[in-house]
Hints:
Blueprint: E1 2-5, E2 17-23, E3 26-33, E4 40-44, H1 58-61, E5 66-70, H2 88-102, E6 107-112, H3 114-125, E7 130-136, H4 162-168, H5 182-190, H6 193-209, H7 212-219, E8 223-228, E9 249-253, H8 260-263, H9 265-280
Parallel strand pairs: 4-5, 4-6, 6-7, 7-8, 8-9
Antiparallel strand pairs: 1-2, 2-3, 3-5
Amino acid sequence: MTASDGGPYVNGAEASESSTLPLDDGDIHVCQDGPRDAPALLLVHGSASSTRSWDPMVPLLTGSHHVVRIDLLGHGRSAKPADRSYALPDQARRAGAVLDRLGVGQAVVVGHSSGGVVATALAEQRPDLVTALALVNTGPGLDAFVPPPSGAGALSQWPPTDEEIRRSASTAFSRAGYRIPPEILDDVRRMTPHTLAATMQAARDYLEQQPLPDRLAALGKPLLVVFGEDDRRWRSSSAADYRAVAGAQVELLPGLGHSPLLEDPVRTAASLLAFTTIHTGRVD
C-alpha cells in the first residue's frame, strides 16, 4: 500500500490516511479515518461520485468508528481501465478485497445511491464480512426511478464543463442553487466516457435482475434505509418497499433530496450513528 497524502496511522491515534491499494484488476484509492481499533464502517459512493462525497460526514463518524472509504474502480482517484468489468458484483468483490488487505474482519457497510447496490452485492458475496447495511437514497428497483427532466440528462461532451456537470447533477439535490463542491466536479472529469457509461449500466443491470428488497430479505442482515423525502431521482415513497426485509428501519428525512450526506450531513450522520451504535455495541 502506497500512501499518497495524509500521515499513516500510528499508535492508536485518530489519523487520516489516503493511499493506493494495488489489486489484480486495477489500483483502488482508499481513505481511512478514525481509530483503527474502533468498529469499521465502510462508506461506498454512488455512480459518477467518489470518496469526496462523504467528506462532510467523516468528522461526525470518527469518534466511534474506523471509517474506510474507497473510490470504486473507474471513479475518483482509482484506476479507470477500459478492459475490466464494472459489473456490480465485481465492484463489490474489490471492496471486499480492500477490507481484507486492510485487516478489517467485519464492517457495517453504508452505500449512497448505487453505492447501496454495491453494498448489497458485497453482503451477498461476503456475509461473514458485512455485519449490517445502511442504504442512503438507494432505489429498491427500476420501477422507482424518476426520469430526469429535459435539460438535466446525460453529459454531451467530454470533458464536461462545470456548468454541464452541475446541470446534469441538478436532480441530486432538493433545492435549487446548491453548489456542488469543486473537488467533486473534478472527480467527475477524472472519469472517462467508458467508465461513466459502464458503471451507470451496471447498476441498471443489477436492479433489473432482482429488486434489492428481495435480495436483502434473503440475507437476514440488519438494515437501515435513509431517504431524503424530496428525492428527485428515486420516488421516496419506494423506501417502504424495504419493509419487506424483516426488522428493517426506514427513515425519511424531510426537506432533503437525493444527497442528504451533502445537503445535511449532521442529520444524516445522526440516523446512521443511532443504527451503528446498536449493531457495533460502540458508544461515543
